[in-house]
Amino acid sequence: MTDAQVLLSVTMLRPDEKLILGALRDEGLTAQPLLMEDLAGVVAGHTGPPGLVLVRNLSHREAISVSRRLEHAAIPTFNRAAAIETCNDKGLQSLIFARHHIPHPATRHAFSYDQVRSTVTEFGLPSVVKPVSGSWGRGVTKMTNVECVEAWAGGRESADAAGKLFPVVVQEYIDKPGHDLRVVVVGRTPVVAIQRVSDNWRTNTHLGAEVQRVEITAEIEKLCGQVVDALGEGFYGVDLVENRATGELLVLEVNANPEFARSSAVHGVNVAGHLAAYVAQQLAAVAA
Predict the structure, then answer these.
(1) Which of 56, 111, 152, 199 has a Cα-to-Cα distance from 141 of 20 to 30 A?
(2) What's the rounded Cα separation, in Å, for the pair 114 and 119?
(3) Rounded CA separation 153/140 (Å)
(4) 3-state secondary structure of 254
(5) 102: helix, coil or strand?
């Protein structure tokens, strides 16, 4: 591996990462991918230290491991290890949102099947049970009645009798108007907001939701600013949900590795270009 100003830590080069590499080079930066087998040489100092490593590993565990090791080797990462760890755990997010008074659906940790049952009873039906870590709506279950809760507990207990997959989070169900919002944040600036529309109660694009660009309102900007104040500047996908009954926007969760290539083809915003420009500005500020 040759010296580079920016390394892009990846599991594989998806269209998103190819766009990022191209945008970084368009900014006049030397940039190249960093695979896991290359990490040992970087932290050992076998190459000149990069000015920054962008962490885009698909595995949550891998992303946290890479960012921690680089930071301990005094190599700055984007996002920071602490932000990646928080964004990869919906339970940790709920705690930091509460501490920073960020509007968020009522959420409780559950460390046993009985705690799931009692928390669903507390919130009322329907409620939502989620694994603390996961993407694309996987493992997220809407509890519509007692039979549903017992079927979830019975099925999970048969596969995890020792309860090693706890904790989970139990969350109040928010009745949304057929869509949610994904806002891409670079640094602390929301660069694009998209509406994800679906007949499914889970409005993930991987589950078939359609996307359309919407205006970044003052309310959206304020919520994103609160998230950045809590997590630090970063490259985030902030998911917002509207309560149909009250019209209030809530922060549902924050993704520290947002995908954008597919939606960019629809909304036309050069997300990779915004990210590369931010990186160039940060490196220039350090060098000044």
Answers:
(1) 56
(2) 9
(3) 13
(4) strand
(5) coil
At residue 38 the predicted structure's pLDDT band, cuts being 50, 70 and 90, is very high
Residue with tokens 């900007």: 221
Residue 150, CA distances (Å) to 2, 57, 172 in order: 56, 36, 18
Nearest alpha-carbon partner for 228 in 190, 177, 202? 190
Write out pLDDT tens, residues 69-81: 999 999 999 999 9
Task: Tell whether the torsion through CA atoms of 58, 237, 27 and 281 is positive or negative.
Answer: negative
Mean pLDDT in residue range 231-256: 97
Q: Is 166 exposed, middle or buried (0-12, 13-18, 19+ CB in 10 A)?
A: middle
Contact at 8 Å (CB) between 105 and 119?
Answer: no
Beta strands of the chain (E only): which ranges?
Answer: 6-9, 31-34, 52-55, 77-78, 107-110, 127-131, 141-143, 168-172, 179-187, 189-197, 210-214, 234-242, 249-255
Q: What's the rounded Cα separation, in Å, for the pair 182 and 221?
A: 12
Structure tokens at 145: 């009645």
Structural contact between residues 91 and 109, judged by C-beta atoms closer than 8 angstroms: yes
CA–CA distances in Å: residue 10 to residues 13, 16, 37, 218, 229: 7, 11, 11, 34, 27
| φ, ψ (nearest 5 deg) of residue 6 | -130, 130
Are 50 and 6 in contact by the 8 Å Cβ rule? The answer is: yes
